[in-house]
Amino acid sequence: MASAQEVTAYGGVLRVKEADEATFSAGASYSHPLGEHFALSLSYLNEGHPLSHHRDGVASQVWVRSGRNVPGWSFGAGVGQYYYFDTVDLHSRSGTRYSNDHGWANIYSVQATYHYPDSRWYNQVMVNRISPSGKDATTSLMLGVGYQFNGVKGDKLHVEGPAADEALTVMAGQGITNSLRSESTAIGALEYRRAVGRYVDWTVTALYEGNTAQSKRNGVATQLWLIRSLNQKVELGMGAGPYFNAQVPDGRGQRSHRAGLVTVGARYHLDRRVVAEAAWNRVVTDYHRDADLLLIGLGYSF
């Protein structure tokens, strides 16, 4: 049981002390053990919708834990870095109404986990403190439900060779502009994926982000992924890379049009050739047209 990989989903409440506000919080986390008392985690966190900020992001943390994988309670404390995406209300009655800010923040966490006897399921209570420089700090209290995946090494076990896995996947879903109104539209994508190592994938993705005034953007993204297998059918991964735009919505005078794509995704191998995929993508821009792209699709491996 010492090699168990853990996946946890969270929901709870968040407090912004400086603004005296409360809102919801949510997240999901993957944890990889390093011996009995240490672990690494990658997480996505949504800090809700306070009046002037809609902030979320991805976090990487190092954990010290009292013990694991035994019935009863265990405890842990984590520290790390959080890269955030923040839609900020500029309170302007004319001109630009909001901005998409990005940056790094310290994140500190404590957790208490209850492991059920003879079960891989567990419940968890976690408190996060996020402290960006020059911005409002937040404190969240979240309850989680998690599952331990045991007995696999974590590499791409369905692959006989590190360069043998290629797939072409057609996807569709919804795009959400990171604005004060969160405008949404139908989107689509075509992804080519290749395994370049037992823990690393490379993708090239053609993206169509819809045809509204806020989302009228098309382009091609290329990403490198860290991939972990939870069993011989399920993979989790996080990818990042540049997004080259062929068509771009107006950036209100900012014409550099640089963009990147950060993605958290899951793949399920229905058989050796057919794979289902679900992904949350964040388009990161320097012209205040960030967007969430929620995609599901079906692919063919060859």
TrEMBL record:
Protein name, UniProt field: Porin
Source taxonomy: Bacteria, Pseudomonadati, Pseudomonadota, Betaproteobacteria, Burkholderiales
